[in-house]
Amino acid sequence: MSVVTSGRYTFPSYNLVFFIFLQLGLHSVEGVWPLPQSITSSPERYPLNPQAFYFTYGSQSAAQEGCSVLDEAFKRYFSLIFPDYSSGRFYNQWSFVDKPFTVQVSVGRDDCDSYPDEDSSEQYTLSVSAGQASLKAETVWGALRGDYSICKIYLKSTDFPRFQFRGILLDTSRHYLPVQAILKTLDAMAFSKFNVFHWHIVDDPSFPYQSRTFPDLSAKGAFHPMTHIYTQSDVGRVISFARMRGIRVLPEFDSPGHTQSWGKGQSDLLTPCYSGSSPSGTFGPVNPILPSTYKFMATLFKEVSSVFPDSYIHLGGDEVNFSCWKSNPDVRAFMLKMGFGADFTKLEAYYMENIVNITVALNRTSIVWQDVFDYHERIPKDTVLHIWKGLPASYAAELSAITKAGYRVLLAAPWYINHISYGQDWRNYYTVQPLNFSGTEEQKKLVIGGEVCMWGEYVDATNLTPRLWPRASAAAERLWSDEKQTSDVDKAFPRLQDFRCELLRRGIQAEPLFVGHCKHEYQGV
Amino acid sequence: MLKFVSLLLALSFCQGLQHNNIDDYVEAEPVFEASKYGSLWPLPQKVQISEVSFKLTSSSFRIVDAKASSAGPSCSLLQSAYRRYYEYMFGSAKKQWWSKNNRRSDPSDLSELQVWITSPDSECDGYPSVTSDESCEYLPFLVHVMFYGGIQSGLETFSQLVFEDEYGAKSINAAIINDFPRFQHRGILLDSSRHFLPIKVILANLETMAMNKFNVFHWHIVDDQSFPYLSRTFPQLSEQGAYHPYTHVYTPADVKMVIEFARLRGIRVIPEFDTPGHTQSWGKGQKDLLTPCYSGSKPSGSFGPVNPILNTTYDFMAQFFTEISTVFPDGYVHLGGDEVDFTCWKSNPDIQKFMEQQHFGDDYRKLESFYIQKLLDIVTSTKKGYLIWQEVFDNGVKLKPDTVVHVWIGGGSDKEMSSVTAAGYTTILSAPWYLDYISYGQDWQKYYKVEPLNFEGTDEQKKLVIGGEACLWGEYVDATNLTPRLWPRASAVAERLWSAKDVTDIGDAFNRLSLHRCRMVERGIPAEPLFSSYCPHEYKGV
């Protein structure tokens, strides 16, 4: 009846008796968010009976029972579909029901024990008919993207993400976030099909990461050495919780700026600032002229790459203030020696090159903030640039310039969600057009995705969740769904309202979009 | 009547600040430093803190009635306040197991706080009122409270002087504190119509209000969007007008619970039933109450404000407000009266005819006044005073001399305060404190810098400003985000309304408020952070 196409893939039309979801079936699949690439559904709904509802593996499936990722997912979704049943409040209203309902899951690869990575296919096909549903995916990560709670409607859906990288940044340095708050966020991320947790784990204010190699970093640099740190087992727990939800954990150890807290536990790491001819007692960015700096960084990143399995490491590189470097006579002498003149961006470039090379040697892909591109271009071609500055006009120009230079790029600028304002600002996040910049098709392919950033100046566990959700969900749909099918923000509004209520039902403290109510209101404080 | 709370606290303080060793990293924004007033918030009127400190041991410390006190164990209000503050200071009994077993009290411990109520009449079972005297005095380890109204603030101040040293032991420095509020009406408005607020959230915010010495809960209970108040006389109002007739309503028992919970914390509950505008939800359950709008010569099917030309309207209001006057014990009711849109009235031929009969010409404000005056007479007959939004005054409605005019329109609110008080009416200010308007950064400073008496007028006029309210309208707020959005931003308003006029040092305020917000977090309230930093006990209720 209709061909649903996306920018990058085309799927054959389904000759189905179902309605086209977009036009007619919208309300029969309420709360589906982000919108699947193609979905057709019948308006009919039928009850599911928890006592006769089963998940099974297809006989052709490469993964079978014992696949931890899927077994756990089945458990989670069962509780989401039958919340009363799991909470023990279930009563036998369906005990007379006869026919079982089976969801058969088949995946093409047994990657149950691996981690999701940049190349993991997240495509899946879900079809629901009388008494059964079938979900087919290439990988287990794709199987996780199917929302089994919509199984109460006959439908057929083929779905895949528009962008491969759909991230959320949390900042655990400006405020410490208890592990519980991080796990809750990972749960909510999975509901919006986000697949990367960008953990901005350390920064100027505090260093909560407890390093095996350099325990002093958190012992002296955390807000509190016992209560405000992430132990190795905390980090492990976050990574494995994320894996179960098909989410990559991308750690950021930002340097050479944003490192005040590092200096407390690692002497000689930061540049001593001078006032006149003597040290002022304050410190600036990482000291780029000492070999000991690079030795330290190599050791630290070696640890980081063994703790965090993801193939990407975020190296930061933003907002380096040169005034301290300028004040330091040794740094100036080094500048002279290296022939940098008075151009401190060259010194920054020198530092970043060394750091990037360290991660290259560790077989890791580097992500750096756009500043690194802006100031110098001698960075390996597979480095990913992360755009964070500016208004649409300026980030479009940056997208253009970076992709023209052949680098892959990640867009965060329009999604600085820590900036709050009165009203429905989710609309701004929704109407972003990430590929609306001048460039060739080849250039557009270099945009690997986007990221919602929740910087922590004004955010901690008290307000994180309602500030993040459902505002981040607006960006989630932009990054997952087809842009043409989701260009109308007013049409998205009721669906997002439904989805927000669904988040509440799933225990996520998501704030309201506007006046109205949910059947199950949040009952906490 | 003047409310004069003098809390004379002889206690100690000072080194208590070391527990919050927020690091001195340099960032462009404010850097935390210990205030000489520690974590006191709002700052008491007169504070002297000595260096002498005492230990408090949970196993031996008691809050007791002084021998001469006119109230004793039979006063449940007092006893529950003692228990509440004991738990704030030491945690629940469960948490104390260790300290009980591991630490004996020694003679230098502070073993009891005596509370001495001197007012002869037992107001223990009464409700806080507009004339409640919140005064109390504190002599060394004796809170000397003249009236019950002072209990809440007296104990709160005492608990704010207690600090935890680096070993987790509780101490308190000797201090003399003499305290009373600058303004008698210090309110928070919550809106339970745009979004339904479960009782639990309302109670948690009453609890937090008490920590901030707010004393009025302005319950904007119904509005266009929904009518969650379950009326005994007109149950169909919520049956038809609530978001859901069972899950999204306040039953009489719920309302009673809110009122009692507030009473125990010295907080008045003033309900608002806003008319004639903001009443769409009323129309669902009460036929003929709203004005039918016309499109041309035919009713359009939509409805406007309350219909002011029908006798049935006033019969309904009389019955309704009679019920309200019995359900809500406070001496005041808020009658709204804001933002009346005249287009529907204009469209209705019956109203046009009525305007002619009454010789109102084209001035629909006169019709509004006609309605409001009748309503005020009805409410007066239920023996209640009333508050109204400023438009009612602006439109020249005849008001009782003790009417409180609520100033809310931003831009020119100083002129409005001038003219309201020049006309001799008491007034409360909300215009600068619409906390539902959010923005990035430390907007609490904006609320803090407001000076309510900064308008042209005589001293007599200034005395007519009885206080203010922070308003958290509900378009974008429900239980999910209410508490962190309100606190500690509303705390800034709390200090402005409680503390002396010259308490304006924003740096010192930042230092005290940072600790105060951590204290709220420790007491289980998800009050959001002011800026990058940490609390010793972070919020765990995720």
From TrEMBL, chain A:
It is found in: Lysosome. One of its GO terms (biological process) is glycosaminoglycan metabolic process. It holds the Pfam family Glyco_hydro_20. Residues 163-482 form the Glycoside hydrolase family 20 catalytic domain. Disulfide bonds join C67-C112, C273-C324, C501-C518. Keywords: Disulfide bond, Glycoprotein, Glycosidase, Hydrolase, Lipid metabolism, Lysosome, Signal, Zymogen. InterPro entries: Beta_hexosaminidase_sua/sub, GH, Glyco_hydro_20_cat, Hex-like_dom2, HEX_eukaryotic_N. Its main location: other. GO terms for cellular component: lysosome; membrane. Residues 32-146 form the Beta-hexosaminidase eukaryotic type N-terminal domain. GO terms for molecular function: beta-N-acetylhexosaminidase activity. Its EC number is 3.2.1.52. It comes from the Eukaryota. It catalyses: a ganglioside GM2 (d18:1(4E)) + H2O = a ganglioside GM3 (d18:1(4E)) + N-acetyl-beta-D-galactosamine; Hydrolysis of terminal non-reducing N-acetyl-D-hexosamine residues in N-acetyl-beta-D-hexosaminides; N-acetyl-beta-D-galactosaminyl-(1->4)-beta-D-3-sulfogalactosyl-(1->4)-beta-D-glucosyl-(1<->1')-ceramide + H2O = a beta-D-3-sulfogalactosyl-(1->4)-beta-D-glucosyl-(1<->1')-ceramide + N-acetyl-beta-D-galactosamine; a ganglioside GM2 + H2O = a ganglioside GM3 + N-acetyl-beta-D-galactosamine. Residues 1-31 form the signal peptide. There are 3 beta-hexosaminidase isozymes: isozyme A (hexosaminidase A) is a heterodimer composed of one subunit alpha and one subunit beta (chain A and B); isozyme B (hexosaminidase B) is a homodimer of two beta subunits (two chains A and B); isozyme S (hexosaminidase S) is a homodimer of two alpha subunits. The composition of the dimer (isozyme A versus isozyme S) has a significant effect on the substrate specificity of the alpha subunit active site. PANTHER family: BETA-HEXOSAMINIDASE (PTHR22600), BETA-HEXOSAMINIDASE SUBUNIT ALPHA (PTHR22600:SF39). Belongs to the glycosyl hydrolase 20 family. This is Beta-hexosaminidase. The lineage of its organism: Eukaryota, Metazoa, Chordata, Craniata, Vertebrata.
Automatic annotation (TrEMBL), chain B:
CDD domains: GH20_HexA_HexB-like (cd06562). It catalyses: a ganglioside GM2 + H2O = a ganglioside GM3 + N-acetyl-beta-D-galactosamine; Hydrolysis of terminal non-reducing N-acetyl-D-hexosamine residues in N-acetyl-beta-D-hexosaminides; a ganglioside GM2 (d18:1(4E)) + H2O = a ganglioside GM3 (d18:1(4E)) + N-acetyl-beta-D-galactosamine; N-acetyl-beta-D-6-sulfogalactosaminyl-(1->4)-alpha-L-iduronyl-(1->3)-N-acetyl-D-6-sulfogalactosamine + H2O = alpha-L-iduronyl-(1->3)-N-acetyl-D-6-sulfogalactosamine + N-acetyl-D-6-sulfogalactosamine. Its EC number is 3.2.1.52. Keywords: Cytoplasmic vesicle, Disulfide bond, Glycoprotein, Glycosidase, Hydrolase, Lipid metabolism, Lysosome, Signal. InterPro entries: Beta_hexosaminidase_sua/sub (IPR025705), GH (IPR017853), Glyco_hydro_20_cat (IPR015883), Hex-like_dom2 (IPR029018), HEX_eukaryotic_N (IPR029019). GO terms for cellular component: cortical granule; lysosome; membrane. It comes from the Eukaryota. SUPFAM superfamilies: (Trans)glycosidases (SSF51445), beta-N-acetylhexosaminidase-like domain (SSF55545). Disulfide bonds join C75-C124, C293-C344, C518-C535. Residues 183-500 form the Glycoside hydrolase family 20 catalytic domain. It is an enzyme of class 3 (hydrolase). One of its GO terms (molecular function) is beta-N-acetylhexosaminidase activity. It is found in: Cytoplasmic vesicle, Secretory vesicle, Cortical granule; Lysosome. The active site is at E339 (proton donor). One of its GO terms (biological process) is carbohydrate metabolic process. Residues 1-16 form the signal peptide. Residues 40-161 form the Beta-hexosaminidase eukaryotic type N-terminal domain. Hydrolyzes the non-reducing end N-acetyl-D-hexosamine and/or sulfated N-acetyl-D-hexosamine of glycoconjugates, such as the oligosaccharide moieties from proteins and neutral glycolipids, or from certain mucopolysaccharides. The isozyme B does not hydrolyze each of these substrates, however hydrolyzes efficiently neutral oligosaccharide. Only the isozyme A is responsible for the degradation of GM2 gangliosides in the presence of GM2A. During fertilization is responsible, at least in part, for the zona block to polyspermy. Belongs to the glycosyl hydrolase 20 family. There are 3 forms of beta-hexosaminidase: hexosaminidase A is a heterodimer composed of one subunit alpha and one subunit beta (chain A and B); hexosaminidase B is a homodimer of two beta subunits (two chains A and B); hexosaminidase S is a homodimer of two alpha subunits. The composition of the dimer (isozyme A versus isozyme S) has a significant effect on the substrate specificity of the alpha subunit active site. This is Beta-hexosaminidase.
